[in-house]
Amino acid sequence: LGRFLRGLGVAADAVPADLDEAAAMWRSLLHGHRVLVLLDDAADLAQIRPLLATPFGTTLLVTTRETLPWGEDSHQLELGRMSPAESAAMLAGLAGEGRVRADAGDTAELVRLCEGLPLALRIAGARLAGRPDWSVATMAHRLADERRRLHELVVGDLAVRASLAASFAALERSSRPVDRLAARTLPLLGLLHVPDITAEAAAALLGADAADADLALERLTDAHLIELVRPGHYQPHDLVRLFAGELRPRDAKKPLLRAFAYYAASTRAASLVIDPHRVHRGPAVEAAAHVVRDREEATAWLLEEENVLTSAARQALASEDDEIAVLGLRLTFALEWSQQRTFRTADMIELGSTAVGVCERLGATEDLLHAHGMLSAGLRMRGRIEEAVEHLRAELAIARRLGDAFAEQRALGNLANTHFNGEHFEQAIAFAEQQLELADRIGARVGARYARLILGEAHEACGRPERAREILAPALADAEEAGDRTNEAQLLVVLGRVQMALHEPEKALSLYLAALREVRFTSTRTRALIELSRTYRVLGELDLALAHVTEAVAGADGVLQLERAAEDEQAAVHEARARRV
Predict the structure, then answer these.
(1) Which DSSP state fits 228?
(2) What's the predicted TM-score (pTM) here?
């Protein structure tokens, strides 16, 4: 305020020492004049409050890194990132329009690396202007290396790192507890390589409760160091993430252990709520988990967090720290059923393959058994049958070496299913019979039902529908008694195929519709839709057939066998409709 008064002609020794008196003099000097006052980079409202009470005719333009609680007579404009077109125009103004237009693809990449942030774009443009021998591609290439990006975004006294450091330092030096908590949170966010983060996950990093973590995230949002990307999910810009990574705390392991444990425990807990009858690989992780009340909440949470969980598993598996890598295994195995339901076969194969390598490095034999099993499931779903069989044989050998009868019967069942998918029906029957004998002997009801499912499918495929029905009927009764809705739906679909083979399409129709009521996202639903289309086509209901097969095609992405079956059925429906016309 004193500087403003002196700028308006007040002698230095005439500036009041009292703040209220100085503010009154400020208002008096402005009275009757039309003045635009620019207050650049205000730290907080307290810093500029004495300047805010101005007479009519005076306008204050305030820029700030913070979201501040302005009064009713103010208009607040939040400046987000610049659009690609605006960013390119800014670069063109600094580095030359012809130069920028000549390298449209490289310009787009440079804009992406600068994230539409004006300061980063200004620095990149200024550096290009000062280096006429550089192309836009040269600048983009220099920024492409994350380890060097902040080092490159410096020109003169302008630096992205310095700007971010100023915002961080303001929080760190603040006397407010929420500011200091936010300052402690930002470096921890740099530890996790995930698309976004929730208050619960941040709480795990902090070792605090979710309410405090939420306050910290909101404070970082107000400071424009992170942004709300969807309800309850926060994300730092890449440049902020790189800056946060440079603030890595001395003991980074403990926060990471807590975060990965939270992700693993939450994923397994949600999967168990969705389907308590499915067998989950490996031991559970003892940690606070996200709470879901029912199947719908659990399914929604897993779908919403799927990319985050996969990224977290990928990061943990890549760690050289054994404890973190083991949590990566727990999270990877916990994801298996969710990824099967959503057909994320590429992720299953990637994580499963990495898990095999981690287990071999750690000498973790039991986990290696599970890793081979998970990897085989992804390979089978992608139609890579021979590779899947190879990993299942490795799983079976380990199970027998460990004397783990339950794991042995599970491997036998998966070998049966994989051979069935490869249309090696007699081999499928042989492995399923071995599983059934062992599962009955050790009292593994879910394993026995699965063996009967594969046996029924294989016998139906071999043209023995009556034998298939004999095998499937007791399995369906057992699934209904156990409340195993997933297994029940699988059995209903196969029994529907049996009824079609016995020329009873109306009975098949009721079985398929019953299966649809039991499942929402699994491959079983897609199979039921394909079979419903076939049945409606046989019954001459071609519009209904088309509706069901269209949904099946949309849902089959990621599973080669289902993709082919759905596309073949869709072609058959279109052919039937063409003949009718």
Answers:
(1) E
(2) 0.86
Do residues 453 and 487 lie in contact, with contact meaning Cβ atoms separated by under 8 Å?
A: yes
| Per-residue CA distances from 382 to 375, 418, 524, 564 (Å) | 11, 11, 16, 11
Is the CB of residue 355 less than 8 Å from the CB of residue 367?
Answer: yes
95 vs 140: CA distance, rounded Å = 14
- Supply the pLDDT for residue 9: 82
DSSP character at residue 557:
T
Q: How confident is the model at residue 71 (pLDDT cuts 50, 70, 90)?
A: low
**Distance separating alpha carbons of residues 216 and 195, to the nearest angstrom:** 18
- Residue 370 pLDDT greater than 70, yes or no: yes
Instruction: Give the separation between CA 484 and CA 464, rounded to whole angstroms.
Output: 26
**Model confidence at 558, in pLDDT bands (50, 70, 90)?**
low
Residue 333 near residue 280 (C-beta atoms within 8 A) = yes
Domain 162-250 top-level CATH class: mainly alpha
Phi and psi angles of residue 337, each rounded to the nearest 5 degrees, phi first? -65, -40
Strand 58-64 to strand 35-42: parallel, antiparallel, or no bridges (unpaired)? parallel
In angstroms, rounded to a whole number, what is the distance separating the alpha carbons of residues 200 and 194?
Answer: 14
For residue 39, the Cα-to-chain-centroid distance in whole angstroms is 41
Q: Report the alpha-carbon distance of residue 523 to residue 460 in Å, rounded.
A: 19
Q: What average pLDDT does the segment 165-179 reach?
A: 94
Helix, strand, coil share (%) of the chain residues, nearest 5: 70, 5, 25
Would you say residue 72 has pLDDT above 70?
no
* 490 CB-near residues (< 8 Å, 6+ apart): 453, 515, 524
Q: Is the pLDDT of residue 62 over 90?
A: no
pLDDT mean over 165-188: 95
Whether 34 shows a pLDDT value over 90: the answer reads no
| CA distance to 144, 203, 313, per residue, from 207 (Å) | 34, 6, 20
How far apart are the C-alpha atoms of 435 and 449, rounded to whole Å? 10
Tell me the domain boundaries of the chain: 2-64, 84-156, 162-250, 251-403
Residue 155: in which H helix or E strand, if any?
A: strand 154-155
